[in-house]
Amino acid sequence: MNRRHLLGASAAMLSAPALAQTQHQHPAPALTPLTPSTVPYHNVFEGGTPHHMTPQQEAQRVTDSPAPAGPAGRWVARADMPIPRSEMAWATAWNGRMHVVGGYGEGRFNQAYHTVYDPGADRWFDAAPLPRGANHVAVVADAGKVYALGGFIEQNRACDDLAFVYDVASNRWSEIARLPRQRAAAAAVVHEGKIHLIGGGTDPADERASVAWHEVYDPATDRWERRRPLPAARDHVGCVTHNGLIHVVGGRFNTFQYNTDLHHVYLPQDDNWELRAPMPTTRSGHGMVIYRGRVFCMGGEGGILERRVPRDAKVFGQMESYDPASDTWQRHAPMLTPRHAVAATAIGDWIYVAGGGAVLGGAVQSAIHEAFTLS
Which residue range is the domain that position 63 belongs to? Predict the structure, then answer.
């Protein structure tokens, strides 16, 4: 999940000439501007009412990283999301704009939101809503299209197999071939024009379990095929493509109590997986993007469940990056506001991180939006 992008998230990154060409071929639709939220936090279990963070909740925030120091970089505030949201799963970018689809918000778990952020104007827009509301939707963009795959209809349960494609130029969604198997909180990335859907979680709710499934969608034929599964079944991972490889980092085995630092790469030409250096901070629900030729991971959550009651709750603000050439990690300036289940994308020389959960679990959503740069 760029969520997002991917979602985590994964991100679509374009060079300046490619971006100019894309903008000419796929003009941005006339979207309705939205006013940024004046309320940083809402609690979904209280009907979406405004929420004020308690000292105990703020104490969940963690920013220390064991990774060696790299360039610090800097974070700046950007226009808040129109409403506090979380569990969109991931975001994606196309044509220099960030698309955020679905999620928790306004006291509901099955919202059909589709909001678009324009960094140049520092403004949010309302785009055509997802044909059905859902959370933990896997999203990715390619060739003027945004794909939205699977998702939960209820809170972390009742996943479906629906799949949709959004045409950026016409601002319209269409249904495409359904997923071979129902799932949510999966990761979606594009490689050579085909969409890889990896990992995720599935039902029944009382046996909520991660899966290792790896399926590939071909937009040209509207068909799905299976590929070699992820070596360790998990969901809420970070996932990106870089230099012909697919990186899957972190995530969880069934719940955030069983987070992992595992880092696998998929070799498409061999239909096989290999291990790489693990992520320094073990976490799930983090954002992940490609920026300046490195894999950047930010945010996430973790904790322990005892009789379904969480303790040792952590909401991560660490910003760590991976260098594929040296197979090493380093740390950077942490997020100003730690969050998980964020919308994260890289556009130009910035990483944009919007919304997300402010406390462990899905109770509190945020509208906060911050951006990072090494410049």
Answer: 16-373
pTM: 0.92
Give burial (CB, 10 Å; 0-12/13-18/19+) of 181. Answer: middle
In a domain? residue 64: yes
Q: Is residue 336 part of a domain?
A: yes
Total domains present in the chain: 1
Q: Is residue 5 part of a domain?
A: no
Average pLDDT over residues 66-90: 96
As to burial, measured by CB atoms within 10 angstroms (0-12 exposed, 13-18 middle, 19+ buried), residue 322 is: buried
pLDDT at 205: 78
Does the residue 2 lie in any domain? no
What CATH number is attached to the domain comprising 178? 2.120.10.80
In 65-169, DSSP assigns E strands to: 74-77, 91-94, 97-101, 114-118, 123-126, 138-142, 145-149, 152-154, 157-159, 163-167
Instruction: Quote the mean pLDDT of the chain.
Output: 92
**C-alpha to C-alpha distance for 224 and 179, rounded to whole angstroms:** 7
Rounded to 5°, angle at Cα 154 from 288 and 10: 15
Measure CA 275 to chain center. 22
**Cα 366 from Cα 369, distance rounded (Å):** 9
pLDDT at 23: 39
Write the CB contacts of 270 (distance below 8 Å, at least 6 apart in sequence).
none
